[in-house]
Amino acid sequence: MQPLNLPPFEANIKKMDGMVKILDVLRRRFVALTPEEWVRQHFVHFLIGHKGYSPTLMANEVAVTLNGMSRRCDTVVYRQEELKPLMIVEYKRPDVNITQKVFDQICRYNMVLEVEYLVVSNGLRHYCCRIDLQGGTYTFLEDIPTFAEL
């Protein structure tokens, strides 16, 4: 797999059922190792190991219903209080450019979850913005905040 602009981690990769799979530490099972999954696992390990996020307050492939259709958020980070969603993270393969279309997608998910932070990453470039839900504005941050900063 392609090197990413994220710290390396000890990936648990196995060939199972004729497919290469990687252990998803949040779902606690092996999943198909696709380029997008490679980004997801790196980013999740980055949040846990370098930014102080608790794996017990994170979930991958979170189902949301939008306009009567089922969609899945790549990763959702929750507040400890009331387990309210706090951040949505959307991943793309490294060869996919982060465009307005990607931000439109994560904003649609936020119409349901109403989180304060949106993060988009293709493993090479990462963007984070803080949403002012009351004022309807957003601010791009220079870095992904630590969990303590949220």
Task: Write a short abstract of this structure.
The protein has two helices and nine strands, in the order E-E-E-H-E-E-E-H-E-E-E. With 150 residues, it is an alpha+beta fold.
Question: Would you write up a description of this structure?
Answer:
It is a single chain. The protein is α+β, with helices and mostly antiparallel strands. The protein has one domain: Alpha-Beta Complex (tt1808, chain A). It has two helices and nine strands. It has a six-stranded mixed sheet with strand order 4-5-6-7-8-9, with helices on both faces. It has a three-stranded antiparallel sheet with strand order 1-2-3, covered by helices on one side. α2 links the parallel β6 and β7. The termini are far apart. 25% of the residues are buried. The mean pLDDT is 95.
Protein topology:
Elements: E1 13-16, E2 19-24, E3 29-32, H1 35-51, E4 58-66, E5 69-78, E6 85-91, H2 100-113, E7 117-121, E8 126-132, E9 137-141
Parallel strand pairs: 6-7
Antiparallel strand pairs: 1-2, 2-3, 4-5, 5-6, 7-8, 8-9
Defining traits:
150 residues, alpha+beta, tt1808, chain A, 6-stranded mixed β-sheet, 3-stranded antiparallel β-sheet, 2 helices, globular
CATH topology: tt1808, chain A
Structural class given helices, strands, pairing?
alpha+beta
Order of helices and strands: EEEHEEEHEEE
Through-space gap between termini: 32 Å
- How many helical stretches? 2
**What is the architecture at the second tier of CATH?**
Alpha-Beta Complex
Strand percent estimate: 35-45%
Number of domains: 1
